[in-house]
Give the backbone structure.
Amino acid sequence: MKILYGVQGTGNGHVSRARMMASHFTRRGVQVDFLFSGRAPERYFDMECFGHYQTRTGLSFVSHQGSISYLRTVAQSHPIRFLQEIRELDVSGYDVILTDFEPITAWAGKLQNRPVIGIGHQYAFHHPGVPRSKGDILSRFILRCFAPVTTGLGLHWSDFGGPIVPPIINPAVSSRVGNSVLVYLPFEDQSRVTRLLKQIPDTRFIQYSPDLVDGRDDNVDTRKTSLAGFKQDLQSSRAVICNAGFELISECLYLGKAVLAKPVTGQGEQIANAMALSQLNYADILHSLEHKPIANWLNALPVRTPVTYPDVAAALVDWVLSGEWHNTESLSKDLWKKTRLA
């Protein structure tokens, strides 16, 4: 079986999932070609496991000071180039196309009548039981049309009454006891984040962002995002402050880390994630970036029981190779039986 795997490069969560999937495809000797879009090529890091991967411009949303800016998104989009990238991508030689909310491979597959399987968090929102903000028509339209698929398999922290599967995490990682608080708020103004954290001097913070350089500012260690360093600091942290993205919080749940999540303003998926976290009592929600609620949360830090997930990536690779892509319900039920919830 020859597979084309499209990965949305805007967030590191999509890439992290793809790394786990890539390792299992490699072990099975399956030929997989990876295509990433939504990020400048030089801003990808630790990509060796994907071999000779391709990149495209694609489409991505632009944030400004912690909010999605639709005006900046439109101004910086390249619709003609996007359409050209879809038209020029030949997918005729592939047996199936996988997409983690990557639009070029999804649309090329649709237009060239190839089977397209969507594996990612966004596809969970197609099921009515999943929490989401009401009246968010734009987000609903984007989730439905951004990367269309023949079969969508959603990932989430609960099945919410639908054929949804648990998160893809690395089951080999383990938690360690530490004193630092990991901070990952890439959509915020990093200087503002640092100034805010310095107002809580009795706590050591490790602040990560692609826009930072390694250094120290009083009680704040700044780090440029890297795979190995970030994972090590995550495992040894005592708590995590982050946006309400899916993959990082999934890792925190698996490691039993307390999470304070700030959804990106105007980002429907993150707002819905915050609703789900509150409903499941998996994390606390930060509605505005201010030092007082952060300090109060740290002073009464909740104790979290780890959520034990099975090796979802291995099961998904077996499912893809089986060719029985219509059979999502039994896959979902089997994986949730192997999950030990908090």
